[in-house]
């Protein structure tokens, strides 16, 4: 896994992976949470990828209730335990944050993909190869130097 620094995280993905099957098939989610708790959990999974501590969640309830789209801190506190049972407290650079195994896996894949694109971009990458193909397809081969029009063979019978 890559080294993650939540407080200084600069990379922000343009999109996030979402595996509805993984979410829906989890028995703890399907049978252990009510609809409000599932909503909070889903919101936290999504916000963890774009919040300031990405790909982790902060530990402060003052921040979590907002990220969970709970509507109020009181509603968050009432429903917090089943939701946060899906996360693990970890320490990163001396700071406690909430981690989620699947999110960390997805984050590593996103970061790897991003780094490949950055590397390709620095070396000219896909765009350069595409430009070269486009230019070579549009420009016909030039006749040899010092060739007069009479020396160029062309079948004009169909014209």
Descriptive account of the structure:
- With 159 residues, this protein is mostly helical.
- It has a domain at 20-111.
- It is built from seven helices and two strands; from the N terminus they run H-H-H-H-H-E-E-H-H.
- The protein has a two-stranded antiparallel ribbon with strand order 1-2.
- A hairpin with a 2-residue loop joins strand 1 and strand 2.
- Helix 3 (35-47) packs across helix 5 (73-84) and helix 4 packs across helix 5 (73-84).
- The longest helix is centred in the last third of the chain and has 22 residues, at 101-122.
- It is elongated, with a radius of gyration of 27 Å.
Alpha carbon gap, first and last residue: 65 Å
**Record field, number of beta strands:** 2
For the largest beta-sheet, the strand count, sense and barrel status come to: 2 strands, antiparallel
**Segments where pLDDT lies below 50 for 5+ residues?**
none
| Structural class by helix and strand composition | mainly alpha
Radius of gyration using CA atoms only = 27 Å
Strand order of the largest sheet: 1-2
Helices, by number, come to: 7
The H-and-E topology, N to C, reads as HHHHHEEHH
Strand content: 5-15%
Shape descriptor reads elongated
Query: How confident is the prediction overall: mean pLDDT?
Result: 81
Helix amount:
40-55%
Salient structural properties:
159 residues, mainly alpha, two-stranded antiparallel ribbon, 2 strands, 6% strand
